[in-house]
Amino acid sequence: MVLLSRAKKGPIQLDGSAHSAKEIPLTLDCDEYMNKNWFRSKTVVFGFIFLMMVYVLYKNERFLIRSNDPIWNHYQTFKWWLLAHGVAGASALLLGPMQFSDRLRRRYSKLHRIVGRVYVAGALIAAPFGVLIQYRFDEGLGMSRSFTIATIVDATLWMLTTLIALTFALRGKIQLHSQWMTRSYAVAIVFLEVRVVSGIGGWNNNLAIAETILWVCLALSLLFGDIAIHWRDLRTTRTVPAKAILANHSRTARGQFEVTTEQS
Q1: Is the dihedral of CA 124, 130, 133, 134 positive or negative?
Q2: How would DSSP label each residue in 199-221?
Q3: What residues of the chain score a pLDDT lower than 70?
Q4: CB of 19 closer than 8 Å to CB of 232
Q5: What is the tens place of the pLDDT at every residue in 79-130?
Q6: In this structure, are 13 and 98 located in the same domain?
Q7: Taking Cα atoms as reference points, which of 11, 28, 24 lies closest to residue 242?
Q8: Are residues 134 and 200 in the same domain?
Q9: Can you give the residue range of the structural domain that contains 114?
Q10: What is d(CA 143, CA 10) in angstroms, rounded to the nearest whole number?
Q11: Which residues face 5 on adjacent strands?
């Protein structure tokens, strides 16, 4: 393997002889190109998450602005538990995407840390309160124990991934911190995914199907998180022909030779 030149931010490498006339694919480290594509991918993903938020607010949470909605009778006995759960969970869901902004992290590192602390606090409050509400109140209204177990698994995954991300941040291992934050947020949006799928499918009143959807979303959450983490690696790198690189170097070397000759 012969190093021929350096691109703007990375090496261009050629397998085989540097004098071969054959066109051999080269792996071109196009950081700028990949960063643009990564930005577009993030924009699409978070745009979709925003649409899920809007759907859930309209479809499932409209009662918040309707004081005479009958569902308040159901929430009356645990409204303060629900308030803590709702505010903490909403804060984590809304602020989470800010943590994935490279520009915010570079330019406003203090704000990034503050938002991160709010996210961690939101996860560690919303998750156990959700389990408490499900076990103590919703089971009494006819929901199954298996649904409670699914809620416990969801809450445990969210808290564990968040705490692991926090641990790596405190140890200065930023890349690992970022990866585990991605997994944490992938688990967090299970709340949205279950409601969107149930609503679109017309299964809001079918608890058995809703529970199945919850288990499926939980099973896929960490997989989706890891796909997001390794998305750049999954993308095919661009290639350029070896002949073009060799010709360019030949012209460069010839020009340098002529300049040296004239100076002599």
Answers
A1: negative
A2: HHHT-TT-HHHHHHHHHHHHHHH
A3: 1-39, 235-264
A4: no
A5: 888 889 999 999 999 999 888 888 888 888 899 999 999 999 999 999 999 9
A6: no
A7: 24
A8: yes
A9: 31-234
A10: 57
A11: 12
